[in-house]
Write a structure and sequence with these properties.
- It is built from seven helices and 22 strands.
- It is mainly beta.
- It folds into two domains: 248 residues, Sulfite Oxidase, Chain A, domain 2 (Alpha-Beta Complex); 116 residues, Immunoglobulin-like (Sandwich).
- The strands form six sheets. A five-stranded mixed sheet has the order 4-3-13-7-8. It has a five-stranded mixed sheet with strand order 15-22-21-17-18, with no helix packed on it.
- It is globular and about 70 Å long.
- The termini are far apart.
- 49% of the residues are buried.
């Protein structure tokens, strides 16, 4: 049962989207509720009755099913700690350091790290008789919420490959809990797909349909959004030409990019050197896709002439973020900058600057605290 929706489509306050207090965000390994946790919705939040909610399993499956939340609870439950990062995290930095982009002005807080719990998608699909295709054909699994209309489509949908959905190592689940509690409506109650290492746009909230199919999702948020368009696309009008044909020339974003963020000091802060002539710095770092954990974070206070290794405050796991801190030497004066750069177990390292794209997605240049006044 779905009742009238409520809430704002973008709900991340305070102020502009992407402004969870970064100092609060890095105060805990697991991201709590309230304004510290970002969320981005393309629709109003539906009111769903957990007792009557149905998740349809359909498409190219031997047996179509209608599952209840109780059915999902009866399956073996899997727990995974995974960071979730919006594809537009740090869009503000791209538009500030490079040039204008089209999209919500996310700052550096469009990420969270949570303990998710629920049945593996592979176990759910097994109930419908679905396994690895014998002919080796690439298949896809679409995860849909058809409860409410979205801004740009009649429903929200995403997809990943069937191989990923069935993989033991990739730990894709239907989350029923976040941090030991039943999901709240803003985070997808009663069921949300979580694919660790994948961008947040694929983690469908309020899930009510899983479809096995021979192509990726046809939903607008898979086909005409959340893609890194070529630099030749310079304005919104450019990606509307020929009915938006340019969108079909690039793949949908899947794996999250390695990233690090300096939570404090923040841009434009005035900081005072300690007795040793140093500044304390703290932030978070997220591994790239399936290549975690983060193994190293380095910090520079002199424009990259030298780097020091940060200390990990939390123990990173394959899909989690790591909270890090460091003390770095910075010259006194105005207009100072501190940088951070992360490396993961797969060898991915942040570039100094990302490649610009009109939608401002996938920004993972050095973490930075700019325009500091150092006393």
């Amino acid at each position: 049962m779905v009742e009238k929706g409520y809430s704002e489509i973008v709900n991340s306050g305070p102020g502009d989207p992407g402004r969870p207090n970064l100092r609060d965000l890095v105060s805990n390994f697991l991201t709590g509720d309230g304004l510290v946790a970002y969320d981005r919705n393309h629709s109003l939040i539906p009111r769903i009755n957990r007792d009557t909610h149905i998740i349809k399993i359909n498409g190219l499956v031997p047996k179509e099913l209608n599952l209840t939340v109780e059915d999902l609870e009866a399956l073996p439950q899997h727990e995974v700690v995974a960071a979730l990062q919006c594809a537009g995290n740090r869009r503000h930095t791209m538009r500030t350091l490079q040039k204008e982009v089209v999209g919500i002005n996310w700052l550096d807080g469009a990420a969270m790290n949570c303990r998710w719990r629920g049945p593996r998608v592979r176990d759910v699909l097994a109930l419908a008789g679905t396994g690895v295709p014998k002919d080796g054909k690439q298949m896809h699994v679409a995860f849909n919420c058809r409860s409410v209309n979205c801004e740009d489509d009649t429903y929200f949908g995403s997809s990943i490959t069937l191989d990923a959905a069935l993989s033991d190592e990739k730990e894709v689940i239907l989350a029923l809990e976040r941090n030991g509690k039943i999901l709240s409506p803003r985070f997808g109650f009663p069921v949300r797909m979580i694919a660790p290492g994948i961008i947040g746009a694929r983690a469908t909230k309020w899930l009510d349909e899983i479809t096995v199919q021979d192509e990726e999702s046809q939903n607008v948020y898979q086909r005409r959004d959340y893609k890194i368009l070529p630099e030749t696309v310079q304005a919104k009008d450019d990606f509307l030409v020929n009915d938006g044909a340019v969108w079909d020339t690039v793949p949908a974003m899947q794996e999250s990019l390695i990233n690090s963020v300096i939570a404090y000091p923040a841009q434009d802060d005035t900081v005072t050197l300690d007795a040793d002539g140093m500044v304390e710095v703290k932030g978070y770092a997220i591994p790239g896709g399936y290549d975690g954990p983060v193994v190293d974070v380095q910090v520079s206070g002199n424009g990259g002439k030298s780097w020091i290794t940060a200390e990990f405050v939390s123990k990173p796991t394959k899909f989690s973020w790591v909270i890090w801190k460091a003390r770095v030497t910075v010259e006194r004066g105005p207009n100072r900058t501190i940088w951070s750069r992360a490396t993961d177990a797969g060898g991915n390292t942040q570039p100094e600057m990302s490649v610009w794209n009109i939608r401002g997605v996938g920004y993972n240049g050095y973490g930075d605290a700019r325009n500091l006044t150092v006393l």
